[in-house]
Write a structure and sequence with these properties.
about 160 residues; alpha/beta; Rossmann fold; 5-stranded parallel sheet; two-stranded antiparallel sheet; 6 helices; about 45% helix; globular
Length: about 160
């Protein structure tokens, strides 16, 4: 019997090699509406997305992974019928990484180690809402292209950076 997906689920997938960050995110999301799923490599995370019984609308991913990086994950997400929003994490985020993350189509950049609970919850909620309202991957890419051309030159601080750049 084919399985159906629950499209109103609030599952979040974290792809990262750090068990410490898996546990930190699990604790932050414990009393929230989200259920955290985890994978330690890009390959395992993408496999989980393809076989999940419920739709996953948000993926949180370390910027470097044992088998690739966040750009590999983003490229794979772009091929999915319902593209999850991608939030990238980095311990050493700078303006260049933030600009690259946003311009290539990820949703946000979070500073990790330690995560700030209010930033994780804000970014996750915003990404979930954006992903649920997004169209197909092609429509999402067209929208990102139009949006980035309108906001070119604007400077905004990455999540958790504590102010403007």
């Amino acid at each position: 019997m084919p399985t159906t997906r629950n499209t109103v689920g609030r599952d979040v997938l974290f792809i990262g090699s750090s068990t410490h960050e898996h546990e930190a995110l699990r604790q932050i999301l414990t009393d929230s509406p989200w259920k955290l799923q985890g994978a330690f490599t890009a390959g395992d995370g993408l496999g989980l997305l393809r076989t999940a019984r419920r739709d996953i609308f948000v993926v949180i991913c370390e910027h470097r992974l044992p088998d690739g990086d966040w750009k590999d994950v983003l490229a794979a997400l772009d091929e999915m019928p319902q593209r999850p929003a991608l939030i990238v994490t980095s311990r050493l985020a700078d303006e260049r990484l933030w600009a690259e993350v946003i311009s290539l189509g990820a949703f946000d950049l979070l500073l990790g180690s330690p995560f700030r609970p209010e930033e994780v919850l804000r970014a996750t909620d915003s990404a979930w809402r954006a992903s649920r309202s997004a169209g197909t991957p092609a429509e999402t890419r067209r929208s990102r292209t139009k949006s980035s051309s309108r906001t070119q030159g604007a400077r905004v601080a990455p999540s958790g950076a504590g102010g403007s750049l």
